[in-house]
Amino acid sequence: MSDIEKDLLAKIESRKAKVGIIGLGYVGLPLARVFTQAGLRVLGFDIDPEKIKALAEKRSYIKSITPETVRAMRDKGFEATDDFDRLDEPDAVLICVPTPLTETRDPDMTYIEKTSEAISKRLRKGQLVVLESTTYPGTTEEVCKPILEKSGLKCGKDFLLAFSPEREDPGNPNWSTERIPKVVGGLDAASGRVAAALYGKAVTRVVPVSSAAAAEATKLLENIYRCVNIALVNELKVVFDRMGIDVWEVIEAASTKPFGFQPFTPGPGLGGHCIPIDPFYLSWKARQYDVTTRFIELAGEINTGMPYYVVTRLAEALDRRGKTLHNSKLLLLGVAYKKNSDDVRESPALKLFELLEARGARVSYHDPHIPKIRKGRKHDVKQTSTPLTAKTLKEQDAVVIVTDHADVDYAMVVENAALVVDTRNATKSVTRHREKIVKA
Hints:
13 strands, 39% helix, alpha/beta, Rossmann fold
């Protein structure tokens, strides 16, 4: 056992290790919570001064992290900063930055590269660096390692390097960060052992794998599995609709089989930072090996087409009522990418805004969890949430249910709206005025 491994393991075991977390968003802030809760010192880094200010004032900007939680974190010594010169302070540095796609669906390594450069400038002997950002197999070794070694230090000899994919599910009350098993793979055996020991202090179960590449591939498999199965039910939704069959009834019936079937549900498109993006990281990497990932490409084609399908169904429903999309007044109900969440990243609602406004519709939205839509990497929807009242609903030509938040009175929506296009089966329990409902 090397001196670096021995020293880091001793610090981790005694809970004297200091953990640095770069990126205090939906992944980094919950991670900071569990390490702080476990009794380790945590220093968070972010380039957004508004986040640093909010945390200094013991406020939260993420729904799943309450202000009370932030206060408890601060009371236990958690600190947040935008001063990256302090990156030499932590014993372990965890990278939780975005990994988007370019316009041509190639991996955009900008955030990982810039973060690795920032660490490299302050890297000291004896530190552990762990990448958590979802990416293609080989990133930790091919991208992070060479940049970190610009410091003059050598991986495995002077510092340790590992990959441990984030598995956050924002808003899920059943699976908090500490309860989700943590997959860990090092670039070498010592890196894997130390990273596993570190996470073992904060989560209930660590799953070691043989390499960083295996850990990177694990996260991609998880999300490709979901992407392909969601595409399947989205395709079946279109087919069954043509046949006059309710896909939701079919899914519910099939779910009674106690083995060999796992239900997935259709929707207006994919959202969130993971499922719409991660599969294409593997597609890109596979092309370097002259392999075509046909399932992934087909699933992507189907899922990205769903907002267009919703617009078509809405236009048909309006047409039957003597109206057109042009100049129609429309309310999108829910803009978060998933129910009961305040996360709007890659939400299909943003694409629907774009498509509907391009057709001349006047579009507004209501979301109890998102009072204002902030500018994203691809979309800039300058809107604030409209109050959901009987008066507002009666003023609309149609209401499109994009996200099936639990705290919405769907019976009231159907009662007062002239037309409801339901993409999530949110109105399944509504018994009155079902003639107003169109499933899409």
